[in-house]
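Below is how a single chain appears once it has passed through the pipeline. First comes the sequence as given, then the structure the pipeline wrote out for it. We keep one example in the README because the format questions we get most often are answered faster by looking than by reading.
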Amino acid sequence: MPLSNLTDHLGETGNKIQEYIKSTAEYYKLRLFKNAMKFATSLINMLILGGIFMMFLIFISFGVAMWLGKIFESMLTGFFIVGVFYLVIFLLILFFGKSHIDKSILSKFSELVVEDEEEKASEAETEFLYNDENVSPEDISFNKAANHE
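Resulting structure:
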């Protein structure tokens, strides 16, 4: 009898471990999907906003080049000045701004992962606090919490 109880408990334990592994794998699949979607939406937003800004920049550049061309009485000179302006900006960013751009991009995308970790920690804390008492956070109001102190 005790041996059959032991084998039953070991069988149940094995089943529980398999269920735990399956649920953990599903959790990490969902988490990976969530992070991938956050990354994809951020990338698409940046591409759309960057595209719109580039269109704005192109029209402004043409306008400034034509305006300078009228001032200098040569369209070629106006476009050359605008081209040199963008070349100077490119060189400044290449030599001085590359590390700043890298840091800002890394911090932006790391915020997506950090926010996910903070959400996970908050959910775990809420589950820990309210699971033992079978009380949900919605059942507790500030007045009830003040009365318990």
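Helices lie at 2-72, 75-131, 142-148.

See the next section for the split statistics.
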